[in-house]
Amino acid sequence: MNKDIQPVTSVSNVPEQRFENPGLPPHTPRRNESDPKLKRRDSLIVTGIFGLSALASIAAVVLYFVLPSYTTLANIRLGNLVLGLGLAIGFGGIGLAAVYWAKALMNDEEMVEKRATSRTSPEDQAQAVAIMRQGIADSGVARRPFITAALGGALALVPLPFLVPLIGNLGERGGWDISRLKHTMWDRGRRLMTDGPHDMSRPIKMEDVTIGSVFHVIPEGLNDLSHAEGYAEEKAKAVVLLIRLDEKDLKEPEKSLDGIVAFSKICTHVGCPVALYEQQTHHLLCPCHQSTFDVSDGAKVVFGPAKRPLPQLPITVDEDGYIIADGDFPEPVGPSYWERKK
């Protein structure tokens, strides 16, 4: 055995050391415990924060109806901002008031409770009930009706900024009027235009669309509405991807225009723009949740949470060689909703 190596002392040979329980540190009273004016001030602060929460919820709902109609992108963003601020201040106020209430008004003395046995005795059960009652008494709910009323009001009003947009039949602000999703600007004879500013958008001829190319397309006349109400909504429904494949790669070439197909860009999962095309696999990818659609097979879903293929726009060619729509989409574009069977 090497003399430089010392044997390790077994833990069992180390003498046991015991420490006295130091107990709890002395309680430091809060300032308001000896000054009723400070306690009243803290009660008013808690009530005021709950009141601010309620007012923020009411203000968000009122402004939602006072603001201009939500048919332009700017108004939609403003409406979302108003509702978001109402929710943030409403929920945040409730949380802040609850924390201040606990810190300033509830009993803050530390207490020690010995661990109970597995089976709770009737005495322990009675003690638990007494502790719960003591907690309610410490919160001061019975003694502070204004705080309780403010809390109830804030809790009742805070969901309103979230619920109001979900209520149907609210005029032009309109709830979920799903009939607006059933039709787009596309109709028979309307030319397919490249998506871009008014002075750069142009109609598309068949010879412009080579195999493997992709065009982002809008209906003719859409840019004329760029400063009108409803433009953002119409464009969101009507945007299309125009793609040309070799006809031998298509499962149903008869549904194409010499290999040219046009599909809605709006994902059938939650409505994100589908715009990532993989030329070798003929797959379209939605960047939001990775739903993948096979363009060679009617844009059917091959991966991801989407459940329906992308709607296909029927197309043909006019006498001047420009690609035109042969009607509207055969089904509503965008996500599934409760009236659909699929």
Task: Characterise the protein shown here.
By secondary structure, the protein is an alpha+beta fold. It folds into two domains: 126 residues; 148 residues, Rieske [2Fe-2S] iron-sulphur domain (Rieske Iron-sulfur Protein, 3-layer Sandwich), CATH 2.102.10. A four-stranded antiparallel beta sheet has the order 1-2-3-4. Helix 1 runs parallel beside helix 4. The protein is elongated and about 95 Å long. About 3% of the residues have low confidence.
Name some characteristics of this structure.
342 residues, alpha+beta, Rieske Iron-sulfur Protein, four-stranded antiparallel β-sheet, 6 helices, 10 strands, elongated, metal-binding, monooxygenase activity, Rieske_Fe-S_prot
Give the secondary structure arrangement, pairings included.
Blueprint: H1 36-66, H2 73-104, H3 122-139, H4 145-157, H5 160-163, E1 192-194, E2 214-219, H6 231-238, E3 240-244, E4 260-264, E5 276-278, E6 283-285, E7 292-294, E8 300-303, E9 315-317, E10 323-325
Antiparallel strand pairs: 1-2, 2-3, 3-4, 5-6, 6-7, 7-8, 9-10
| SS-based class | alpha+beta
**Total of DSSP H or I helical runs spanning 4+ residues:** 6
**What is the name of the CATH superfamily of the largest domain?**
Rieske [2Fe-2S] iron-sulphur domain
How many beta-strand elements?
Answer: 10
Radius of gyration: 34 Å
CATH architecture of the largest domain: 3-layer Sandwich
Strand content: 5-15%
Instruction: Give the CA-based shape.
Output: elongated
- The overall number of domains is 2
Distance between the termini: 80 Å
CATH topology of the largest domain: Rieske Iron-sulfur Protein
**Can you tell me the CATH class of the largest domain?**
Mainly Beta
Biggest beta-sheet profile: 4 strands, antiparallel
Strand order of the largest sheet: 1-2-3-4
Helix content: 25-40%
Can you tell me the residue ranges where pLDDT is under 50 for at least 5 consecutive residues?
168-176
Mean residue pLDDT: 82
Order of helices and strands: HHHHHEEHEEEEEEEE
